[in-house]
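User: Please fill in residues for this 184-position structure.
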């Protein structure tokens, strides 16, 4: 492999890993626009009940997550196999934590170990998922503990919208950068 090909391979690995991380952030922030950028427009996702077009999958994600007040998804290991066609196949291990209503006025925390099998191809010069298979390896559920049981005074709490403290910070930084008004 030439030096240029090696550099391109390293760049592709970084971009693919970033794509998987953006998927997690988009789900947690319920950001459909960014979620769409992860997938080819003609992509299909199979959760075990047959492949569905990405548009239907995104409707399902929005519907399911509308009732989930807290969510955190992480990608851990990502194995990338570059295919002779120029495409890539990835197996990404992930952890998902979701707080859901228990139907009795309380909440249940669900921890999921998941894997995503993805066929990725370039779309307009960027890696995107063309086919995804979602596999759940384990689910653990437990009643949610009230936050008042812990000393969390003065701490930020995450939200799933534009009011999230990290989302607000990012927007503030973008405003400072575009106006040149950074004051230390």
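Assistant: Residues filled in for all 184 positions:
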């Amino acid at each position: 492999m030439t030096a240029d090909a090696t550099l391109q391979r390293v760049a592709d690995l970084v971009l693919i890993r970033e794509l998987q991380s953006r998927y997690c952030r988009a789900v947690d922030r319920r950001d459909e626009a960014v979620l769409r950028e992860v997938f080819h427009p003609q992509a299909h996702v199979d959760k075990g009940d047959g492949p569905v077009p990405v548009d239907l999958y995104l409707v399902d994600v929005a519907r399911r997550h509308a009732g989930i007040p807290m969510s955190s998804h992480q990608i851990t290991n990502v194995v990338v196999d570059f295919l002779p066609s120029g495409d890539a196949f990835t197996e990404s291990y992930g952890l998902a934590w979701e707080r859901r209503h228990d139907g009795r006025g309380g909440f249940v925390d669900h921890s999921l170990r998941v894997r995503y099998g993805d066929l990725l191809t370039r779309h307009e010069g960027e890696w995107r998922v063309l086919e995804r298979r979602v596999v759940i390896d384990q689910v653990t559920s437990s009643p949610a503990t009230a936050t008042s049981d812990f000393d969390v005074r003065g701490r930020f709490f995450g939200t799933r919208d534009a009011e999230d403290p990290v989302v607000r910070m990012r927007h503030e930084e973008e405003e400072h950068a575009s106006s040149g008004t950074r004051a230390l």
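For context: The chain has one domain: 3-155.
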